[in-house]
Fold this sequence. Notes:
By secondary structure, chain A is mainly β. Helix content of chain A is 0%, strand content 61%.
Amino acid sequence: SQQGEEDPQALSIQEGENATMNCSYKTSINNLQWYRQNSGRGLVHLILIRSNEREKHSGRLRVTLDTSKKSSSLLITASRAADTASYFCATPYTTGGNNRKLIWGLGTSLAVNP
Amino acid sequence: TAGITQAPTSQILAAGRSMTLRCTQDMRHNAMYWYRQDLGLGLRLIHYSNTAGTTGKGEVPDGYSVSRANTDDFPLTLASAVPSQTSVYFCASSETGGRGQPQHFGDGTRLSIL
């Protein structure tokens, strides 16, 4: 019952380049979230964009949301080796009544080469 | 730093044995979650608790049980482990449950069932 799907599955770039990864989802959402997971570690929340927002920035991160296409993109500008990680999108889905849980995509694995 | 502590970090367990994975948070978050992360399947919700004293089933609850006696602790028990439960288990929390809020993760328990 996967809600979000990221693409590409894997991305390899040089340090200093920009990295763009995309997420598509299936149902209506009230927000979409992006997380990073470094190897062997837990997920870390990066940014949340609400359904009435089209773009949001946080440092070198830029997230866009197109609810008509049910898609979001995460742009990392001027990438660094430390950005090497897997990136996941997550969207709330309703399990019944007002109970919402997050459902996760399979992630994009980003390698930033020095 | 504040956050979620999981123990043990890794474990090898014989099939048929029982085990409890521990999770403690110091953020006074109301909601807590248990996920398993498997290659190709992503993060899947096992059980959750929106507040102390209540629990709910997630996407893959069979073979697992949880309790939430207080705000800080949310242990996950495997009563009789099977090889298909080999996975990385993550505990997470959010300020409130049921609204799809951002979640904070521990660094996981890597469990191998032989």
